[in-house]
Each structure stands twice: as C-alpha cells, then as structure tokens.
Amino acid sequence: MPQTPPAPPAQVPSTAPAQGPDLQDRGVALPPPSPVSVPENPDEIQFTSDQLIYDYEQDVVTASGDVRLYRRSDRLRADRVVWNRKTGQVVAEGNIVVTNPEGDAAYGDRIELTDTLRDGVVENMLVVLDAGGRLAAQRGRRDNGIITVENAAYTPCAVTDSEGCPKEPSWKITADRVVYDPNKKRIRYTGARVSVFGFATIPLPVFSHPVGGRSDDGFLTPDLRYSRTNGFQIALPYFFSLAPNRDLTVTPRVFTDTLPMLQAEYRALTSKGAYRVTGYGTYSRRADDLTVPITPATSRNDFRGYLDAVGNFQLDPNWSASASLRLTTDRTFLRRYDISRDDRLRNNLRVERIDQDSYFSINAWAVQTLRVGERQGMQPIALPELDYRRRLDDGLIGGRVELQVNTLAIGRADGQDSQRAFASARWDLRRLTAWGQEVTLTAYARADAYNTHDTLETDVASYRGLEGFQFRGVGALALDVKWPFVGELFGGTQRITPRVQVVAAPKIENLDVPNEDARAVDLEDSNLFALNRFPGYDRFEDSTRFTWGVDYALYLPGLSIDANVGQSYRLSSRPTIFPDGTGLTDRVSDIVGRTVVRFRDFISFTHRYRLDKDNLAIRRNEIDATVGSRSTYVQLGYLRLNRNIGPALEDLQDREEARLGARVQVARFWSVSGSILVDLTDQEEDVTSQADGFQPVRHRLGVAYEDDCLRLGLTWKRDYETTGDAVRGNSFLLSLAFKNLGR
Asked: Cα(416)–Cα(688) distance, rounded to whole angstroms?
C-alpha cells in the first residue's frame, strides 16, 4: 500500500472550554492533497497508514498511526480508523480532521462516517471554513456535504492573540441548532443569540448570513442615534443582492420627534464603469427659516427629500463620461437629518476624451443654493462648456505649442446671462545654460468674444461688463530664469534657487466683459509666478511686471524643509483692476511665502502667509499641522484673512477660524477622538458677521473599538447654529458593525 510521510502538526495551543463548544484550534495539521496516482475508479478510497490489520471473518479493516484517507477531493486524517466493509461504516478516532472539496476542515474527537467520506456524525466538533470563520459544537453531523450541529457557536474572529495564546473572540453567535450549506455558502441558526465580549446581547430566534465575503439578501447593522432636532432615531437597513454586480439597500428611519423617513441606495458595476443612486424621502413641515410666523400655510406638511447620484464610465481607452447629481427639495433638509453640511449643491455632467497630446471635454453645470436668504434665480447654469486643447512640438526652434478653444454659456433665471468663446495659443521654450540656469520663454495670445444680457441684475459693477457683443484681444510675453545652487549641509542636501520673471502685457479692456470665473482673486505663493494671477479666463492681468523669489530646500535623513518667498513690482503706471486688499493693488505687491517642514512620518507642518508691503502686517496667515503617528495624532488648522475688503465682494470677505482634531490610541483596539471648529471672525473683520470673535461652530467627541471583526463606537456631536428647522443642540451616534458577516 502507498505510504507518505506525516505532515508536522500545527503549533497552535489547544485549550479545553470551560463550558459550551470550543472555538479554539485543535493542534492538528490538515491532510495533504491526494496522492499523485489516480485510481481507475474515482469512487475508490485510497489510504495510507503506519499499520494495517485486516479481519477476514468480519471484513473489518483497522488502520492506525497517522492514517490518511482520500476519495475524490474528500480527505481524512486520524490516529486510528476502523472500516467495516460490510456496513460501510468508517469510525475515526484521535486528532481527527476531515476536509471537503470546498476547503472546509472539520475537527473532532470521534467521527462516524460512511465509506464515501462525505456523511457522518462528529463528537466535539470544530469546523474551520475555508471562506473564513469557524463553527464549533458538542455534536454534529454531515449529510451530502451539509453540516448540521447542535448546541453550537460561530465566529469569524481570531481566537488567539498576537502571541498565539487563546482569547475570547470579540463576538460570536451561539445557537441551539446551526446548519451550514457549503454550496450556498450560508449559515442558518435556530435559537441564536449574539454575544459581544462574552456578554449576551440581542436574541435572534431565526437568523442566517452568508460566509466568505459574498453578498446575499438580509438585514444590515442597525443605526442608532439621538439628535436635538429629531429625537431618538433607529434605522434598520435591508440589503437586496440583485446580482453579483448590482445591489439595493432600503433603510427605513424612524424618529420619536418627527415623521419617519425612507432611504434607498442602488449600486451597479458594469463592463464600462459604475454608478450609484441614493434617495431620501419624508413627509414633514418645510421650514427654511423659523422666523416665519407659524400659520396653517407655513406649518402644513409636504414632501421633503434629497437625490444624490454619481457615475463614471470609461467608454474606451480615450473616451469617458461622468455625472454627479445632487438635488434637494428645500434648504434645511440635509442639515436637519445630518446628511450633509454643504451650503451649495453642484451638479455636473461631463464627457471627456484624453490622449497623449490632446484633451476635449463637454461640461454642464448647475448649482442649487442652500443658503437662507440667497436667491435661487441668481445661481448660474453653465450649459454647455466645451474645451479643446492640443499640444504640438515646435519643429523650427524647439519648444512646445499648446492650442486651446473654449466656449461657455451661463444662464440665470433672474440674473445676468452671458456667453463666451475664445481661441488661444501658447508657446514655451525651455533651455539650460552652461552655468546651470533654467531659462523659460513664453508667448501667449488669445482672442475673446462675449455676449451679455441683463447686466443691471448684477449688483457689483465690476462684474457686469457691457451689454451685448464685445470682442477682446489678450497677449503676453514672459521670461523666467531659475538658478539653483545645490550642495551638502549637515550630512544632507541643500538647494537654494533664486528666481526672477518678467511679464509684459498690453492694456486689455477687462471691464468691457463680464466676470464670471475670476472673482476669488488673492496673491498667494501658488500664483506669484503665474502668467495671469486671476483665476479663470474672464480677467487677465494687463501690466508689465518684474517678480522675484527664492526657493529653499533642505533634505536630511528623516527631515525635510521646503520654503519659498517672493514679491512682484509692476512697471506700468496705469490703474490696476485688482480689488483693494488682494495684495496686488499697488505697484509693489505684498510679500508671500510658504514653509513646509516634515519630520519622518511624525510631524507635518505647512505655513502660508502674506505680509503687507508697507508695515509687514499679516494679511494672510494659514497653518496646517499634524503631529503623531497613524494611530495617535493631533491635527491643527488656522486661517486668518485680513484684507479689509468691503462687504460687496462676497468672494473676498475676511475670515478667521481654527480647527482642532485629535485621536489617541489608548489601548490596542481602543481609541478616543475629537474635533472642533471655531469661528474667530468678529465684526471688525466682517461687518456682516454675527460671531463674537470666539464662536464654536460644531464639535464632536467619540470613543471607538475596532479589531479584525468588530467595530463599535459612541460619538457625541454638538451644533452651535440654528438654520431653519435644523436646530442647534446635541446629537449622539452609536455605531456597531460586525465585520466578516457578509451583507
């Protein structure tokens, strides 16, 4: 008979349970694959053992000493096996493990099987599922591959700690009866109860779930929370697995202080891409502003809801299409139900084509405002925006040419309408001198055409432009020189790069055309050397200017410092179109800079600033810092804009705020986290501000537990502002998620 050497046993400690089924490993190695030789009859059983005794009279075969039996893909390993060939009964004892074709392994003290090795009864049974998880019972049986156990426990969690010592799983399900069908990959329970950290929790008389990470219909983890506006809330999602690539989740949400709400989310994955559609709906009183007197007309209930859809499709290697739609029935619905805090919803449809040297896109934009007191009719609808760019190599003297054609139509229900089209060409030539300077020469030319209507509907005169058709030419020449100096310092590398730029542009009739996309202008380190320091296309800087700057970098083992500083001087004496306070109004600009410091993965510090050219007053002060590791860290953010710009230019209002967030890993699986946002703006900075200089906006504080199969958390949130029916106050969220439980 064939003999194979025994495999070494798995070195996992074995412990006896104090009570109930044992989920710990049995310290027995899996049977190896079947022998190489394949029998002529696939139903024939092959086996190996150290010793074999055959009783001719009783027709009983007794094998002992590392016995291994094989039939098709079923395998068995035991210390001793007695096979009654008359009855077909196979009894295995001692260090038993049985493996089925699906890869599930069943361990036991004593197993009675048929001679097919598929059916039988097991005492003190442990089944380790190939798809993940383990099922233990005092007694179980297997019929046609279906495992049925009594007085059982199931867990997908680890039952040993990092040192290999036994531990109680984070959660497990105990039941009077459990049935596992490996073909359906589903476990069904009768008389079940979920235990978390050894404490019994929710009873589940009838319960089932898939295994192995696959999806199937069923309830998901409930969502429990309390808010000042809606009272106690319970949400119980139900998941529909429509296909391997499509699913639907329906979530009823019930509140104690308001009417219920229904949420539905549909997801699909296709051969070209994926999309998701989420909808919310309820029937309650609309209240954009609680200052409205309560009358039968203002207090009647009405439908309220929100639609959020997003999709992305790659039609071929070059063409793609995407969409993002966000619509709501009123301005306070999202905040009241803690769905989103956005004050504007942007909708976009886009088709793009990208290859190595060209780009083409068709865009459509629409905006819904959620700001109380802001007119929806003044919100722009951009339909369409077409943009085409082509990059060419200059075959004459070198360099690179980029051509662009762009059109845009903006309409408003109650405001100014405008259409724009332009064609431009840009040529860049980059050369390195013998002394190491990097010299870049740029030439830019553009022709614009505008058509504007209802200009008097725009309150800010500098944004209107002239009524009707207007034509404009734009041109600029630039010379940019960098001279890097690199050397060793403190055992690392230091780089100092002086930089100068000269830009010449003729006078441009900027105010003859409307300003739709170049309003939020501010001098920063990112646009100091830009050809046009206005964002967008509707305004172009028409001056001849000289700009200087210095870049500095120091790279040491574990430490890096990057910094820059610069300023510009306008040679032209004609008045500028930059608003006062942007740092570019006078002939000499403010001083701008940025400093970035990184120390290993422990410290990240970024500081951006703008200093007044006359008295070095701080006009912009922005700090973002992170200190700590991935598990324990502190994040700090601070922003102060001190531009002294009047209230008419909304996009340039002064602001001051501080943000603080932290997370502390107090134990291996336990953490505490919190964050706060504080509005530091006062009326000296913004005459329209209602803040007192130290006004908390919102904060949150939470404690969480998360390991390989359980996530548990409690979060306290507080809002300090009331907007419509979204009332300020406290909210509490309890989250509980059983990982590896399927869907």
From this structure: 25
Bond prior to 203 in cis (omega within 30° of 0): no
Q: Quickly tell me which residue has 């992305």 as its tokens.
A: 312
pLDDT of residue 289: 46
Strand, helix or coil at 631? coil
Distance of alpha carbon 202 from alpha carbon 265, whole angstroms: 27
Q: How far apart are CA 583 and CA 388, in angstroms?
A: 33
- How many other β-carbons are positioned within 10 Å of the β-carbon of residue 156? 26
State the Cα–Cα distance between residues 371 and 357, nearest whole angstrom. Answer: 42
**What one-character DSSP code corresponds to residue 539?**
-
Taking each continuous run of H as one helix and of E as one strand, the counts in the chain are: 2, 41
Q: What are phi and psi of 512, to 5 degrees?
A: -75, -15
Predicted local distance difference test score (pLDDT) of residue 193: 85
- Say how far apart CA 482 and CA 166 lie, in whole Å: 64
Query: Would you state the structure tokens that stand for residue 250, as one six-digit string?
Result: 């329906």
Q: Which residue's structure tokens are 């200093």?
A: 611
Nearest to 312 by CA among 350, 365, 347, 345: 350
CA distance 404 to 357: 12
Q: How many angstroms separate the Cα of 474 from the Cα of each of 457, 537, 572?
A: 27, 10, 17
The confidence score (pLDDT) of residue 185 equals 76
Task: Give the β-pairing of 417-432 and 400-411.
Answer: antiparallel
Give which of 516, 523, 525 is closest to 541, Cα–Cα: 523
Of the candidates 146, 133, 138, the residue with the CA atom closest to the CA atom of residue 100: 146
CB 73 within 8 A of CB 98: no
Q: Residue 26: left if φ>0, alpha if ψ -120 to 50, beta else—which one? A: alpha
Q: The whole model's pTM is what?
A: 0.78
Distance of CA 353 to the CA centre of its chain: 26
pLDDT digits (tens, 9 = 90+) for 227-261: 888 889 999 999 998 988 999 999 999 999 889 99
| Helix/strand/coil (H/E/C) assignment for every residue in 556-612 | ECCEEEEEEEEEEEECCCCCCCCCCCCCCCCCECCEEEEEEEEECCCEEEEEEEEEC
pLDDT tens readout for residues 429-456: 999 999 999 999 999 999 999 999 998 8
Query: For residue 545, which of 580, 576, 509 has the smallest C-alpha distance?
Result: 576
Residue 328, exposed/middle/buried by CB under 10 A (0-12, 13-18, 19+)? Answer: buried
Comparing CA positions, the residue from 446, 437, 539, 549 lying closest to residue 502 is 549
- 187 near 207, Cβ under 8 Å? no
Cβ neighbours of 464 (radius 10 Å): 20
Q: Which residue has the tokens 């780089």?
A: 495
Average pLDDT of the segment spanning 68-85: 83
Tell me what pLDDT residue 437 has: 93
**219 to 205, 247, 330, 427: CA distances (angstroms):** 14, 13, 31, 61
Q: What is the dihedral of CA 390, 396, 397, 402, to 10 degrees?
A: -10
Pairing between strand 218-219 and 199-210? unpaired
Question: CB under 8 Å, gap of 24 or more: what pairs does 162-170 form?
Answer: 164/11, 164/12, 164/13, 165/13, 166/13, 166/15, 166/24, 168/197, 168/198, 169/23, 169/709, 170/196, 170/197, 170/707, 170/708, 170/709, 170/710
The answer to whether 517 touches 493, Cβ cutoff 8 Å, is: no
302: nearest Cα among 286, 288, 289: 286
In whole angstroms, give the CA distance from residue 378 to residue 382: 13
Contact present, 457 and 414 (Cβ < 8 Å): yes
Q: Which amino acid is at 146?
A: I
User: What distance in Å separates the CA atoms of residue 418 and residue 401, rounded to the nearest whole number?
Assistant: 30
Q: Which of 600, 604, 606, 579 is nearest to 520 (CA)?
A: 579
- Which is nearest to 229 in space by CA: 336, 339, 370, 342? 336
- Tens of pLDDT, residue by residue over 95-109, are 888 887 777 787 877
